[in-house]
Amino acid sequence: MDLFHYRGGRLFAEGVDVERIAVDVGTPVYVYSRATFEDHLQKIQQAYRELDPLVCFAVKACGNLHILKLMAGLGSGFDIVSGGELYRVLQAGGDPAQVVYAGVGKTDEEIVQAIQAGIGYFNIESEQELENLIRLVERHASGSKVKPKAALRVNPDVDYRSHAYLETGKKETKFGVDIERAVAVFDTYGRNPAVQLHAIHVHLGTGGKTIDPFVDAVKKILPLVDRLREKGHTVEMLDLGGGYGADYETQTVPSAQQYAAGLVPLIKGKGLRLVLEPGKSICANAAILLTRVLYTKQGGSKKFVIVDAGMNDLIRPSLYGAFHFIWPAKTDPRFVPTTRNKDLHMEGNEVADIVGPICEGADFLAKDRSIPPVQRGDLMSVFTAGAYGFTMSSNYNARGRAAEVLVEGDSFRVIRKRETYEDLVALER
Ligand SMILES: *Cc1c(COP(=O)(O)O)cnc(C)c1O
Predict the structure, then answer these.
(1) Partners of 177 in the β-ladder
(2) What spacing in Å lies between the alpha carbon of 244 and ligand 1's midpoint?
């Protein structure tokens, strides 16, 4: 569900006509809906409530301080992958004890910062990393009463059937250790006095459309938990990672309730605290990217719509071939979209490539897309832009990054200013 709806041919974010935002703040601009964040997080918390889950929102999907503050206020923990993300969480008032830290390349500096902040769990990706963590705890935190906790990232070798760049749960990826290796790692480090290795982490990847890979993974992990416990190891927590589907197209992925219906019965009664690390399933639908049509033109048989947002603002289409539904924010009422699906074609539509201003052939937001006729000056909405949108944006072509706006009911406020030319050069002065 989300709160971006057409009323009489005009797109609203909650109670705000998005044209108002575009006029006030300019374009391109990311527009977030507070109520959509709340709804998505609460649906996950509800769906898994029997297991008293800790939901750790994945900061890399959408890391604006105001969004993190909002999430912390709703009881969310955070999944981080860098020292910078830890800094953001702390600045936003997040509880460090509810932070889990993954990533194959944590530096010593980042690890020490996380030890000192007292984060919940280090999600360990390799034996060397664990040895390094132990060494750093001995050196920097040996006197402290609370021993840092760690979860071993296990690679359950399930096929996620997504884009190759988005798969992280197969044997041939850089993430985690094999199930067979996991027992040996616990045997070596499970009773280490410096770090409590007492949990298992899995993260399969992202972009899948069924619950099967999650069920397969849990069915492979639970026997491992039994084996570890039989050998006298403590396993108190299972972190199932992120990667739950988001509705880039209308109702094409399982809901939180459907995931939970498949997973909760497997995990219930096993004495495991559940941690989840959803990113895009919470924030993808919670934002749109507004962009204006600069020009339209014909190139051979192709029609091009050139807009003021490019791959530096939203790289997912260029990077992953990702689909984003795109539609004019103001249309004749007969063109109000009935779904946000790839194959939506309405009488009177034209087929066009929607491209940005960047000097790269890969700079497109959509190819061969059926949209209502648009002209210079029209405002377009790129839907489901809240995840890996702004956070992956760059200054390529010396373009200042877009502004971010948060809508709350009938009002909106800028939560990140548009970058200026001076911002672009400030660190080079
Ligand atoms: C990226 C990532 C997530 C979030 O993935 P989504 O697909 O956005 O849900 C969660 N955990 C880890 C370890 C990640 O790398």
Answers:
(1) 154
(2) 9
Pairing of strands 379-382, 287-299: antiparallel
Any ligand 1 atom below 6 A from CB of 59: no
Both 320 and 172 in a single domain? no
Residue 200: domain span: 103-276
283 part of the active site: no
254-280 pLDDT, tens digit per residue, is 999 999 999 999 999 999 999 999 999
**Does 317 fall in a domain?**
yes
Report how many domains make up the chain: 2
Q: Which atom of ligand 1 is nearest to the CA of 387?
A: 8
| DSSP class per residue in 156-219 | ------S-GGGB-SSTTSSSSEEHHHHHHHHHHHTT-SSSEEEEEE---BS---SSHHHHHHHH
| Overall pTM surpassing 0.90 (yes/no) | yes
What pLDDT, on the 0 to 100 scale, is given for residue 160?
A: 63
What's the chain's average pLDDT? 94
Give the tens place of pLDDT for each residue, 372-425. 999 999 999 999 999 999 999 999 999 999 999 999 999 999 999 999 999 999
Query: Is the C-beta atom of 82 inside 6 A of ligand 1?
Result: no
Residue 242 Cα, ligand 1 centroid: separation in angstroms? 4
Residues 194, 240: one domain? yes
Question: Does residue 279 have its Cβ closer than 6 Å to ligand 1?
Answer: yes
